[in-house]
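Before the break, one more example. Copy the sequence into your notebook; we will annotate it together after we see the structure.
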Amino acid sequence: MTVLLVEDHRALAQWLTGELQHAGWTVVRAGTAAEAQQLVRRRTYDVLLVDIGLPDADGVDLCQELRTITPAPILMITARHDIPERVRALDHGADDYLPKPFAIEELVARMRAILRRTRGEPGPVLECGPARIFVEERRVEVEGQTLTLTRREFDLLVVLARHPGRVFARDALLESAWGYDFYGESNVVDVTIRRLRSRLEPFPALDVQAVRGVGYRLMVVA
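Here is what the structure looks like once it is written out:
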């Protein structure tokens, strides 16, 4: 698998190149938008990694240009965290967006995921009792029926279903499902868990239990 890495920061580009090669990827590097366009015209790539902050062009504008040259999926990497910038990148042809700093494991996982999506290959399925959770598609089937969940309900179910029977503290659920450390008193987990329980009521084999003074766990009832 070959990836074109468009990154002008020399130290970061060297680190990413080494890590991606260690993960089994062949890496071709470009330090400018002009160089990236030349390289894309010369050969095909499986994935393009494009930094937004380039010295000779805006990375989002480059993404839009590359989309007219190659069908390869594009993953934007950037230090910018604002939502409008992410939306702009996705609207201009990016397939995914990963803010810095990031773990190399997440980057590689996202690259594999966008490859599966663009090739129409099925993503991983998490099975827990009668539930089949299509993680990348964000879809749940229980006993053959599609279960409609909100974003947070789905995220909580995934966390609980990965380790059925394990008790998760509220803080751990907040960090896993909401994506950040939550400070202060809040009942957001309890409210979302109650909604999730109501969705699972027709399926008695799946029981979200409260553990007094600790948190919650998902039990698969035989």
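The longest strand covers residues 206-211. The CA atoms of residues 47 and 112 lie 9 Å apart. Try to locate both features in your own notes.
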